[in-house]
Amino acid sequence: MTIVKWRLLVLLDKHKKVTPAARELGLKQPTATFHMKKMEEEWGTELFESKTGRILLTDAGKALLRFAREIIRLHEEARLEMRLLAAAGERLAVRIDAPCREQAAALAASLLEPFGRAIDFTAERRLEEPDLIVSERAEPPSVAGSVYWQAELKLAVSASHPAYAGASADSLLASQSPWIAPPAGTELRRLCLEWSESRRGALRETYTSADLGTARTLAAQGLGFAIVPDFSRHHPAAAASGAAGLRLIPLPGAPSYGLELAPGPLLARKDEPMLLALFADTRRGG
């Protein structure tokens, strides 16, 4: 059935008369009556009955009404989505392969804002290739072809919890305070473990979070400490990401850490000379 017929079914249940239902749809009464007959032919059963001048739905019509309302809702949702896509133009797909997703998104959005494109950020690996990829990188790249954002690794602790009032890196290691760890397999986790070994200490992993936004929230509640990248010195665009309720403590002997934005395989196959030029002769983002 067409969306007009689904809407007519709902309006007939609302008005109980053909004329006002047809008027609301912008149809003439004979056209609405024709659609009613066609609906009954399509479903092979009576959907409407006339009682004392009113049009009522039969049991079959009432059963179909639930689906009609859901189909109309989905149609309206799809219409709004298409309107958004048309207004935004072609979107850029940016995949974030890093635990500091909020900061990665803020940095990428700030860099790409002059291009005036809508951006679809995702942390998932999908069937389609992304246009751009943000990934962890311990050291700046040695050759051009990507944008690199340098960070400083710091300890994030609660700014108000008394247990962390005078905390330092060495005191947290010595007291075996709970560590809110990044997930296994990430560059940040590897660097955290190497740093603790260099300080002749051991981190006590109490929580593990795939997203540093969650780690910061737990740390702000005083449930432990996290080791997080701080981009504020070099890149103010990411300074405010997840900083509320936290005190950042310098990490002595902190290893190098940053994020790299590089074009994905899909971008090279598109006609995007301005975007590709962004990576032609630069290694650092501003």
Automatic annotation (TrEMBL):
Is Hydrolase given among the entry's keywords?
Answer: no
The terms under GO molecular function for this entry are: DNA-binding transcription factor activity; transcription cis-regulatory region binding
Q: Give the matching InterPro entries.
A: LysR_HTH_N (IPR000847), LysR_subst-bd (IPR005119), WH-like_DNA-bd_sf (IPR036388), WH_DNA-bd_sf (IPR036390)
User: What protein family is recorded?
Assistant: Belongs to the LysR transcriptional regulatory family.
Domain (HTH lysR-type) spans 1-58
The protein here is known as Putative LysR-family transcriptional regulator
Q: Which domain of life is it from?
A: Bacteria
Pfam families linked: HTH_1, LysR_substrate
Answer whether the UniProt record assigns the keyword Transmembrane helix to this protein.
no
Keywords from the named record:
DNA-binding, Transcription, Transcription regulation
